[in-house]
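User: Kinesin-like protein, Grus japonensis:
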Amino acid sequence: MVKETIRVYARVKPLGRRQQAGIYSVDDDEKSPSNLEIIVPRDLADGFVNNKRERYKFKFQKIFDQEAKQDVVFDSIAKPVAECVLAGYNGTIFAYGQTGSGKTFTITGGAEHYSDRGIIPRTLSYIFGQLQKDSSKVYTTHVSYLEIYNECGYDLLDPKHEASRLEDLPKVTIMEDPDQNIHLKNLSLQQATNEEEALNLLFLGDTNRMIAETPMNQASTRSHCIFTIHISSKEPGSATIRRSKLHLVDLAGSERVAKTGVGGHLLTEAKYINLSLHYLEQESISTCRFAQRVALIKNEAVLNEEIDPSLMIAQLKKEIQELKDELALVTGKQRTSELSQEELLQ
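Assistant: Predicted structure for Kinesin-like protein:
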């Protein structure tokens, strides 16, 4: 069992044409956590007597500046997690921030250039590449794609998704078993035998995702989405199965409702988004504060192994037959009848 705190990273988005440059500094040291300092100049409209705080300093595992490329982000963040998932541990990567901060670009990527691929497609490429290299085990991979919209869950890979309204789809519900394990009812698992099949499922889910335009972002994703890669592995002849999951999460924007300039059903969406993200105050600073709290959480990573019942039964039957043969050699009699309950308990 491995116990360590959650690793938190910060990425600074390049400025758009209409965006004003923010003031920040990065103290980046490869041997120690990086420090990000945000400087908020005092507003003269508040008067000369202003006790408003100007400087905020936050500590991260690593900080990616405006020049950081997608492959660097993947190698630093997602690749180590993917390696642990291949070893049998569960993993989660999620992006948090306000609308337009680059969450979807980081997680899914852009469509203009191949180099703009995000964490999900790069992770799929890496995982299937590693599976092809490993011939010592038999692997089975599935993917699922869950959308949480207005606090309701929907299956983005449901075959009826394209032909129905979102409200007509069966809702994904959370269920808990006696061992306190969480199960999602009505969420389908789609098998993907290679990278191409997995990417096609990703594109299908992205097409079905709820997208709406807000003044802050012309292609604003208005829902939380969780793309999960399920991996099962087993050595030939072994009864032990390793099962692991990698959750890649793109959260909806966390900004103030007043800043988005939305109304009607979009206002309802924003309220639910803020509710589920535990809405905070000033966006960049509150995002960093949220990150600092997340960094305090300690995870206990457990290797997910279980016994294949069918193989175990076959092995036990073989062992029983071998014991019967040994008994026949000792007694000189071949036993044909099954052992009684009393004999089994002896």
